[in-house]
Design goal:
two-stranded antiparallel sheet; single chain; mainly beta
């Protein structure tokens, strides 16, 4: 969603999934030695 370094704080990102197929997607957050992966279920209207 965002592939850049950012300063500490709260951020929001608009995610446009209009061209993605329904399915399970994974997002990963990394900071130093910390890493967290979460899954996202996308249900398409198509």
């Amino acid at each position: 969603m965002v592939n850049q370094k950012q300063n500490a704080g709260s951020y929001s990102v608009e995610f446009d999934a209009a061209n993605l197929a329904s399915g399970i997607y994974f997002n990963k957050l990394e900071e130093g030695e910390f890493s967290a992966t979460r899954r996202m279920i996308l249900l398409s209207k198509k």
